[in-house]
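Anyone? Bumping this.
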Amino acid sequence: MSDKKPIISNIIDNLRRVFQILNEQSKKVERETGITGPQLWAIKTIHENSPVKVSDLANKLYLHPTTVVGIIDRLEKQNLVERRRSKDDRRVVWIDLTDKGNDLVKSAPEVVQGLLVSGLEEISANNLTEIDRSMKHLVKIFGAQKIAPKLILSTEFNIRQDANIEELDK
Amino acid sequence: MSDKKPIISNIIDNLRRVFQILNEQSKKVERETGITGPQLWAIKTIHENSPVKVSDLANKLYLHPTTVVGIIDRLEKQNLVERRRSKDDRRVVWIDLTDKGNDLVKSAPEVVQGLLVSGLEEISANNLTEIDRSMKHLVKIFGAQKIAPKLILSTEFNIRQDANIEELDK
DNA sequence: TACAATTGATTTGCATACAAACTATATTAG
DNA sequence: CTAATATAGTTTGTATGCAAATCAATTGTA
């Protein structure tokens, strides 16, 4: 019972380290491209799902709609995306990449697809697979009690690209 | 080469999920105790190292000094910690828990040690050990290129409580 | 049909998180 | 001993990130 605590402490500590490392990657991308990690992530996701609703984008990014609104605001200010009010359902806002946004995705695909995680690309495929398995395990165990309840409320809450985590989906 | 990318994508996605889950835990603690996850983390770390310099606290929390100043500001406003200008070196500020801060740590140890990760406590010791091993693996691989260089610049950058990650320390 | 409940996006307020610039103090070099 | 440099902490400005409240539009229900 009580001897779990140091283990939990270590897990959290190590997660914080990983956060830090990924954060540094993100800052590096920001220095090199002028846009932040989350913004890049959003642009990539918009590109893959264009046009996309704010709420769907939030689901795909695992972020709160509020947070996404802020990111979209800043991308719109840089003229990389644009908002379009839906005519079918006037509550809905469709988000699209502008020409400039598309240029960003196309002219530097490695920025969007790879540079974000450039630090990871040097890792061997075998080790990547192992890490992948570890992360699935983490998500499965951590997320079982936490994500599943959400699905009851919002069937759209995704877990999508990598759905073979033992059907948390349905 | 190129087939690494979907794996990397999945890893990042899963990490984001874990972030979200831990974030929810943190919010839950905030609702229950009135102080946030990072604040709780800081209080616990101050308790274990009291009195501690701002810069050392930043190192122990893996955070930027600026960020720590903000957290300390808010803790001071709640009368949980206090600042004391060093007489030896008047640039240094020592941070201590107030009586109220000590009460918080002592009267509710499970809040500090366990509630932060209450969701994890229900997990079996075996599974925890497995997760722990996974995280060490992640940190070892992710961090090898990233943390090591820092040690050259700052010997204090820690990796402390759990130093048996193959001596990244020294 | 009218009214309640729900949904989609936004606004507001706050807490992280960091970089860059700044202040004060201490150390080092010439 | 003085000027340059380095260090410790803070201030300022910006970008996430979320909760709660709000507004508009749609859906469900009586």
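Late reply, but here is one note on the structure posted above: Chain B touches chain A through 53 residues (CB under 8 Å).
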